[in-house]
Design goal:
The chain has 19 helices and 19 strands. With 579 residues, it is an alpha+beta fold. It folds into two domains: 379 residues, paralog of FGE (formylglycine-generating enzyme); 174 residues, Alpha Horseshoe (Serine Threonine Protein Phosphatase 5, Tetratricopeptide repeat), CATH 1.25.40.10. The strands form seven sheets. A five-stranded antiparallel beta sheet has the order 1-2-5-19-8. A four-stranded mixed beta sheet has the order 15-14-11-18, covered by helices on one side. A two-stranded antiparallel ribbon has the order 3-4. The longest helix is centred in the middle third of the chain and has 24 residues.
């Protein structure tokens, strides 16, 4: 056996081996306690069967990831609607102004933002063997922890020490398992006393451990435990505030949802969706007076419609964002401490709600800020620009992804062609070549109902456009002229670019009025093809400052080019400029 094969085999065994003398138990008893209780009650068994663990590459609704020392982390899929790579959801965060006043409105005030998922699969499983369509999606998704990170899970990651790529020592796992395996499912509490830096360190260490484990598995011919999007692995991080609140509300934040303090649940008796009482979903000292410790074990209340537990009350949850006050027109410019969401066991019932947010400073005089009522849950996402997956090396990374880039360009073009952007916004999204292509794009039938296929060839289309512009032989029809000039220009007729630009500057045949910026683009394209009239017209635009900032140096340059191409008016314009 070669040294490399031996090393890889050893590494793989090291990551996958169970701690010696570990007490056999159902893994979900501590890591998915709500599922454990659901299986325990009807079966009346001491060790009920845990839910099956699905292939992570199928992007299941419930994802189970390994952790050191036989722990596991359960996450739920969160779907965000979208049909293209650039689609996004407008989400309404916070609480309407009429529901609060004073400082509360500056902390929890209503505001909007946008959100999109990471994985290119929405509802339902993905077939890992079939590449999905990137130009027509059924939504996108990310994952969020089913529970806050629990104390056993946090301790399991802390056992990794300074090298997160190595498994914990076997004796450390044995001692850890011996301590926690006697826990009941009703005693699994959140990890608390967490600072923002602690939470970030947890996500970094856990991601590095998972990726090291996946490298070992791939080297042995296996598959990674982290789901991939094409040629890029996913990773663990903190959720953004928008991701957290969108998921907390069950995957929908319409404007009318802002006034709701609770999230919708599915009635355990009828299966119908309803709004619960706060006591059905949140643990606080106000609502659970029999609790000696208002910080409850996880998963004892009703989940939301996405299967997420304890999004309100119990412990404040750290998110990635920095705190900003809420102005009437959006977030204030000053960034402060970090944000915690959802309230905790000591938060008054009157203040609790899914939109509840609070600032926590990173540091105080005593040092880094930690609280016994603060925890966190993790998110799992991908990079924005994912690598390509090669057929001969499905787990290779770092390849250029032309299919993804093409899908992005297609989504961009659809945005520009649509009406959900301002004119300025549409133009800013496009390169000059793309803008020119959009300007010359024409429907299959002209304004007069004539098929574009009835006249073919650039010269013939140009002649028809010129006739409708000038009224020679036909009744003048500027809209018809614009239609045929566009087709002629697309067929390579540079003069059509010149005439079309002139009509746009004048606003002829356009309900939108003059558009000198599009004329500028058309004339630049015509000038590149040697059209002296286009060069001269560009000089006029820059001299007058129509559609562009006034620039006499640019005007002179265009007049000089036009004169070099024997334009009759260019030399006179140069003399007027003092040249």
């Amino acid at each position: 056996m070669s040294n490399r094969v031996f090393f890889v085999s050893f590494l793989f065994a090291l990551f996958l081996a169970r701690a010696p003398d570990a007490v056999e138990r159902s893994w979900c008893q501590l890591d998915d306690p709500a599922a454990y209780r659901a299986a325990l009650e009807p079966a009346r068994r001491a060790a009920p069967a845990c839910p099956p663990i699905a292939d992570p590459q199928t992007l299941p609704d419930e994802l189970v990831l390994p952790m050191p020392c036989d722990e596991r982390m359960v996450l739920r899929k969160v779907v965000v609607e979208g049909k293209t790579l650039l689609d996004q959801q407008t989400v309404y965060l916070g609480v309407p102004a009429d529901k609060q006043s004073g400082l509360d409105s500056l902390i929890n005030g209503a505001r909007t933002t946008v959100l999109a998922g990471s994985f290119l699969t929405g509802s339902g499983p993905r077939d890992p063997q079939r590449p999905g369509r990137q130009t027509r999606l059924n939504g996108r998704s990310f994952y969020l922890g089913k529970y806050v990170v629990t104390d056993p899970q946090y301790r399991a990651i802390s056992l990794l020490g300074s090298d997160p790529t190595a498994a914990p020592p076997a004796e450390a796992c044995s001692a850890f398992r011996a301590e926690i395996d006697g826990l009941r499912d009703t005693l699994v509490r959140p990890a608390v006393g967490i600072s923002w830096f602690d939470a970030i360190a947890f996500t970094r260490t856990y991601s590095n451990w998972l990726l090291a484990r996946d490298r070992a598995a791939i080297a042995m011919g296996g598959a990674p435990s982290l789901p991939w999007e094409q040629g890029s692995s996913s990773y663990i991080r903190l959720p953004t505030e928008a991701e957290w609140e969108y998921a907390a509300r069950g995957g929908a934040i319409a404007r009318e949802d802002q006034s709701l303090r609770v999230y919708r649940v599915r009635d355990p008796q009828t299966g119908e969706t309803r709004l619960p009482e706060m006591s059905e979903i949140a643990v606080t000292s106000d609502l659970d007076t029999n609790e000696q410790n208002p910080l409850s074990a996880v998963g004892r209340k009703l989940p939301n419609l996405l299967g997420l537990y304890d999004m309100i009350g119990n412990v404040d949850e750290i998110v990635f964002d920095l705190f900003r006050l809420v102005r009437p027109d959006g977030l204030h410019g000053q960034a402060g401490g970090f944000i915690v969401k959802g309230g905790n066991g000591f938060t008054s019932e009157n203040e609790l709600g899914v939109a509840h947010r609070r600032e926590v400073p990173f540091f105080e005089l005593s040092g880094e800020v930690r609280a016994k009522t603060t925890g966190f849950r993790i998110a799992l996402t991908t990079p924005v620009l994912v690598s390509a997956k090669a057929p001969d090396d499905p787990w290779g990374a770092g390849r250029q992804n032309p299919v993804f880039s093409s899908a992005l360009a297609d989504a961009q073009a659809k945005l520009v062609a649509g009406h959900d952007l301002t004119e300025t916004g549409r133009k800013s999204l496009l390169t000059e070549a793309q803008r020119l292509s959009v300007l010359l794009e024409r429907p299959a039938v002209s304004p007069r109902g004539v098929s574009s296929r009835s006249i073919t060839g650039g010269p013939q289309r140009y002649a028809r456009a010129w006739s409708f512009e000038t009224g020679r032989g036909v009744k003048a029809d500027p809209a018809e002229a614009i239609y045929w000039y566009g087709l002629a220009a697309a067929d390579g007729q540079a003069k059509a670019l010149v005439n079309l630009g002139t009509m746009l500057v004048r606003g002829t045949g356009r309900s939108e009025g003059p558009d000198p910026s599009d004329a500028l683009l058309l004339w630049e394209a015509a000038a590149a093809r040697g059209e002296a009239v286009a060069m001269y017209n560009l000089g006029v635009l820059y001299e007058s400052g129509v559609g562009v900032p006034k620039d006499l140096k640019q005007a002179r340059a265009w007049y000089e080019r036009a004169a070099a191409h024997n334009h009759p008016g260019a030399r006179e314009s140069l003399l007027q400029l003092g040249g």
